C-alpha cells in the first residue's frame, strides 16, 4: 500500500515514539499552564481593580 507524502512524514516521526510523545505532552502541558496563567493574571487584575476602586 503506497501512502502520500504527508503520511510518510507522520510515519517517519513515529519512528521515534518517545520523543514525539514527550513533545506532545510538553506542548499540551505548556498550553494548559499558559491558559491557566493568563486566567490567573486576569482574575488578579480584576480583583486588584475592584479593590482599588472601592
Automatic annotation (TrEMBL):
Keywords: Kinase, Membrane, Transferase, Transmembrane, Transmembrane helix. The chain crosses the membrane at residues 25-47. One of its GO terms (molecular function) is kinase activity. This is Two-component sensor histidine kinase. It comes from Streptomyces sp. SID7499.
Amino acid at each position: 500500500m503506497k501512502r502520500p507524502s504527508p503520511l510518510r512524514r507522520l510515519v517517519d516521526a513515529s519512528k521515534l515514539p518517545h520523543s514525539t510523545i514527550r513533545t506532545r505532552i510538553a506542548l499540551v502541558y505548556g498550553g494548559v499552564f499558559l491558559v491557566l496563567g493568563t486566567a490567573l493574571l486576569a482574575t488578579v487584575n480584576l480583583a486588584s481593580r475592584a479593590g482599588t476602586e472601592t
